[in-house]
Amino acid sequence: MCNPFKLNNVTPFKRRMSIDPSLIGENKLNAKSVKCKDCGDLIIRKNVGTYVKKDIYLPKYNSRRPEDGEVESDFWFLNNMMKFDNIGFSKMVQGNDKTATSIVTPSPPEATGVVDPQNATNPTLHHQHVRYLTCCACDRGPVGVQLTPQEFYIDAKRVAYD
């Protein structure tokens, strides 16, 4: 007989719900300012970041071990680092399947300028070198990742809004 309170051999669902739709404004821009959830420092002003759904591996928040991470999927995309109000950058990280930002969906052609038909049907690890983004004021994070010189992603669930 099955015991409903014993959950052996059950894998918990790890992907969290999408963000609150009220945070996404006209043209998928952030409807509110994006701030550090720990110190309140301003990261992105209102109507600067574009909401995108993209699966990206990030180390857990405030973890010292990059291999302990999770795939996140709700991001604010910026194509220029000068659009940030305040952001900190890690050193360049050379990764592998776990520690690099593992992209499990292809980068949009408009973000990279490169169309790779093979990756459109068989996604693989795209970026071997990344920089993690942190709060510039308190150095907490990562709150996001820089994949290329023109691709910056802030995890919409690792920040606060005002």
TrEMBL record:
<dbReference type="Pfam" id="PF04421">
    <property type="entry name" value="Mss4"/>
</dbReference>
<dbReference type="InterPro" id="IPR011057">
    <property type="entry name" value="Mss4-like_sf"/>
</dbReference>
<dbReference type="InterPro" id="IPR011323">
    <property type="entry name" value="Mss4/transl-control_tumour"/>
</dbReference>
<dbReference type="InterPro" id="IPR007515">
    <property type="entry name" value="Mss4"/>
</dbReference>
<keyword id="KW-0813">Transport</keyword>
<protein>
    <submittedName>
        <fullName>Guanine nucleotide exchange factor</fullName>
    </submittedName>
</protein>
<keyword id="KW-0653">Protein transport</keyword>
<keyword id="KW-0344">Guanine-nucleotide releasing factor</keyword>
